[in-house]
Amino acid sequence: MKIIVFGGDGFCGWPTALHLSNKGHKILIVDNLSRRKIDIELGTNSLTPIEDIETRIKTWNKISKNKISFYKLDIAKNYFELKELFKSFKPEAVVHFAEQRSAPYSMKNSSTKSYTVDNNVNATHNILNAIVETRLDCHIVHLGTMGVYGYGWTGKNPIPEGYVKVLVGTTREEKEILHPANPGSVYHMTKTLDQLMFGFYCKNDSLRITDLHQGIVWGTQTDETKLDKKLINRFDYDGDYGTVLNRFLMQAAINHPLTIYGKGGQTRAFINISDTVKCINIAINNPPKKGDRPSIFNQATETRKLSDLAKLISKKTSAKISYVENPRKEDPRNDLVVDNSKFLKLGLKPKTLNEGLMDEVQNITLKYKDRVNLKTIYPTSKWVVK
Amino acid sequence: MKIIVFGGDGFCGWPTALHLSNKGHKILIVDNLSRRKIDIELGTNSLTPIEDIETRIKTWNKISKNKISFYKLDIAKNYFELKELFKSFKPEAVVHFAEQRSAPYSMKNSSTKSYTVDNNVNATHNILNAIVETRLDCHIVHLGTMGVYGYGWTGKNPIPEGYVKVLVGTTREEKEILHPANPGSVYHMTKTLDQLMFGFYCKNDSLRITDLHQGIVWGTQTDETKLDKKLINRFDYDGDYGTVLNRFLMQAAINHPLTIYGKGGQTRAFINISDTVKCINIAINNPPKKGDRPSIFNQATETRKLSDLAKLISKKTSAKISYVENPRKEDPRNDLVVDNSKFLKLGLKPKTLNEGLMDEVQNITLKYKDRVNLKTIYPTSKWVVK
Questions:
Q1: Chain A residues touching residue B121 (CB < 8 angstroms)
Q2: Are B380 and B261 in contact (CB under 8 A)?
Q3: Predicted pLDDT of residue B172
Q4: Which residue in B337, B316, B188, B208 sits closest to B253, CA to CA?
Q5: Dist. CA B205–CA B175, nearest whole Å
Q6: Which of B129, B72, B236 is nearest to A107 (CA)?
């Protein structure tokens, strides 16, 4: 299948492009390299020594019979160039990672808030617009987030996969609705906006769209990125782009206390990067039909309370734990039960935290710990302007 | 009170600015004059001979002791200039009309789709962002649309004012949720995106926001715009910007058959422009408290089936009726009951179609019928790309 991976140079995008290529698909990566530029802006870097995109692709194309190609483009700003790309490449599916994906970065200041909204909304809408205009029958697979749901709305009931049944009005008629949006940051908010755009374009133009509500990703490597050291995936550990578990793992490696925001009563959903790429392949192979509403999967395999997660790592590595003021505006504690049966039914065998954590410490964080910029460990973005 | 009216040169914005000025408020109009530029792009014009913005304001400032000022700015594209404006004017409230507001224009082609999303989302977000950054306690009154609800979701129950009670899950716990979004065009979709942004900024930053879900506006003049002929409000009759009732009234004046899209079974909600400005004044005087969720009013006073509306005008004016292919993708017929009790309780005395229609024909459409550009009467924007 011909597939465009938008944002294919990023943390999830790069291993996804390799995995789909390995599965025999013809892959075109489209990326504006914004993630690398933001590293420069923030004075941080990937813990792992990633190669530039040309070297990455050249390396892959040497060892794989399925070649990947690359096109540098800011899809949020260049609609007509994007449309030309659709017309010439004629993708049968696209994977859409081309959004600013850090919640702290999205809350940093007014410029990063504006950028996140402007970039994410226009990137998504331009893809939708281009598929309608080019009349291609092209399946969109989009990376959403568990954060669209907020926490606790369903109480003791598990968070469903996108849609929830409710009884309405005096007649108590049963309706199935999109789970109400309750985003916790400007970044998460943009993913709730995406959902409404998907709903409209499915209804009006019968586009085929899969939205994957992903948990917090941890880990670095996949079967494909391990094939050559020049294919190594990025690992973010800084206060803005480092996801919580990866931050803990890096901190454990350098004997820095694990920094819990608040008291750690927040329960979150997690997934390993190697499961991310498998989920996307499964989604590509199981598209919705024309005329269907957006097909939504919860792409998460385990839930953990953050304090439990820190204790688990502390136990395995002897790292200390420190509690820092929570820069976010969020409930101090919550329960979380997630329905993820759709991916499990389609054959996903999750990699658990228990089996993968120490591999990550030994092969990534200990190995590259000398590359850490200590100044970027603590969070600097605050949720509320004082 | 110091109030900025964003989009204060437009069809609703101009009479609102005058009405609020007349009520004693200090008004700053901020507008990029995009509506006038789109007239040029579409080769159409206001049926009424509107003056340029400078003449309008000069005229008002001669007859009123409350002066209006004007600042030309594209707020979607110039965040920092907008922020400076907030810092220097220090508004206690803003009225936000600065969005592309035609559904057909938003569906015309890929450029108008992109423009509508880009302009409307960024305009709204920049206002929110600027209020947070300047730490002003400024109430936002936003013009939403009845179209966010779609039609028929509540069945025989009236469409509530923004929020709907539902029972959830096996425990049947009662929750009040934002009415599920079901927009019928890219334009309407942007207003559903606005709603989610408002929800987030109320939650995270305790902004005070009122969202007015307005029905289809008809009529031209208000008490203030009638005070001098140079204050006359615009009247759009073309296939893109002309709202259905105003189009019918213009067609009746020039002995053109009233053009019903489809069979006219669509029921819609209406409001007269003179009630629009009163509603906004009421909203300004009844702000939500800090910490409240967005306060939502349904700003509509009557519902009519489009075929009944055409018959009513036909009966009063002897105009013929013609049925044209519906360019929109919408249900051919629907019921519609709208809860608008919040404005009624706060004192709104609606102007009915029965009392206002003929005045509109005599004083507007018959008077200015020679200004009609006949080429722009029929709809050209289609909802589905063939």
A1: 117-118, 121, 193
A2: no
A3: 87
A4: B316
A5: 23
A6: B129
CB proximity list for B74: less than 8 A, separation 6 or greater: B32, B34
Q: What band does A94 get if pLDDT is binned at 50, 70 and 90?
A: very high
Identify the CA nearest to A57 among candidates A48, A45, A65, A67: A67
Determine which of B99, B110, B154, B328 to mutate to test the interface with A (most A C-beta atoms within 10 Å): B110
Is A301 annotated as catalytic?
no
DSSP labels, B159-217: BPSSEEEEEETTTTEEEEEEPPP--SSHHHHHHHHHHHHHHHHHHHH---EEEEEE-EE
In chain A, what is the greatest distance between 2 CA atoms, to the nearest angstrom? 66
All domains in chain A, ordered by first residue = 2-376 (3.40.50.720)
How far, in whole angstroms, is CA A370 from its chain's centroid?
Answer: 27
Nearest to B157 among A111, A114, A170 (CB): A170
What does chain B come to in residues? Answer: 386
Contacts of A7 (CB under 8 A, 6+ apart): A13, A30, A31, A35, A96, A97, A98, A99
Residues 6+ apart with CB under 8 A from B280: B16, B19, B20, B95, B141, B212
| SS3 state at B3 | strand
Q: B270 to each of A154, B33, B150, B250, B286, how far by Cα in Å? A: 37, 26, 15, 17, 23
Within A133-281, strands assigned E span 139-145, 163-168, 173-178, 209-214, 216-218, 258-261, 267-272
Out of B125, B180, B385, the one facing A177 most closely (by C-beta) is B180
SS3 B225: helix
CB-based contact A85:A79 (threshold 8 Å): no
Question: How far is Cα B226 from Cα A168, in angstroms, rounded to an integer?
Answer: 46
Question: If you compute the radius of gyration of chain A from its CA atoms, what whole number of angstroms results?
Answer: 20
Exactly one of A16, A145, A190, A192 is catalytic; which is it?
A: A145
**β pairing state of B267-272 and B302-305:** antiparallel
In this predicted structure, what is the pLDDT of residue A8? 98
Strands A295-299 and A209-214: parallel
Distance from CA of A248 to the nearest CA of B (A): 27
Asked if A204's CB is within 8 angstroms of B329's CB, the reply is: yes
B115-168 pLDDT, tens digit each: 999 999 999 999 999 999 999 999 999 999 999 999 767 777 899 999 999 999
Residue type, B41: E
Q: Which residue is catalytic, options A112, A190, A191, A201?
A: A191
Rounded to the nearest 10 degrees, the angle between the axes of helix A110-134 and helix B110-134 is: 170
H or E element, residue A198: helix A186-205
CA distance B31 to B82: 11
Taking CB atoms and an 8 Å cut-off, how many pairs form between chains A and B? Answer: 143
- The widest CA-to-CA distance across chain B, in whole angstroms, is 66
| Residue listed under structure tokens 């109320």 | B202
pLDDT of B17: 98
**Which residue among the candidates A105, A115, A149, A187 is catalytic per the annotation?**
A187
Helix/strand/coil for A24: coil
Q: Distance, in angstroms, between A196 CA and closest chain B CA? A: 7
Q: For residues A210 and A141, is the Cβ–Cβ distance under 8 A?
A: yes
**What pLDDT digit, counting tens, does each position of A214-224 carry?**
999 999 999 99
